[in-house]
Design brief:
- This protein has four helices and five strands; from the N terminus they run αββββααβα.
- By secondary structure, it is an alpha+beta fold.
- The chain has a single domain, classed as SCP2 sterol-binding domain (Nonspecific Lipid-transfer Protein, Chain A), CATH 3.30.1050.10.
- Strands 3-2-1-4-5 form a five-stranded mixed β-sheet.
- The chain is globular and about 30 Å long.
- The chain starts with a helix and ends in an 18-residue tail after the last helix.
- The mean pLDDT is about 90.
């Protein structure tokens, strides 16, 4: 069931995907939820894929209240700072990426680009 849901969400978000935004050849975002099954997002060059489960070595792990909060963060309908401040969202790993992912699927607003160096 989660597999089909993630495929549907991928199709919905694909037109808004900004492939060069992360300025990295590959990034793996792990999503862990207080309620709901985990999944991860692989961004590889000009493509992305949501996959159920956990990836062995994520670039960053995002801990999010629930799936609805996650999708609202990704599509921009929920402000990341507000979600962070109310405890609905936190990250372990490359913290800069935790902010950049919030703009990865937003194509309707102006975007600032920064070069990220590990």
């Amino acid at each position: 069931m989660l597999t089909q849901f993630l495929a549907d969400k991928s199709a919905e978000m694909a037109p808004h995907f900004q492939p060069a935004f992360l300025q990295r050849p590959q990034t793996n975002f792990q999503f862990i939820f207080d309620s709901g099954d985990p999944f991860y997002l692989e961004v590889d060059g000009a493509s992305f894929k949501f996959t159920p489960g956990e990836i062995e070595q994520p670039t960053i792990t995002l801990y999010i209240k629930d799936h609805a909060t996650c999708w609202n963060l990704l599509d921009g309908s929920l402000d990341g700072m507000n979600a962070f401040m109310d405890g609905s969202y936190r990250a372990d790993g490359n913290i800069v990426l935790s902010q950049l992912i919030l703009y990865l699927f937003r194509s309707l607003e102006p975007v600032l680009n920064y070069e990220i160096q590990d």
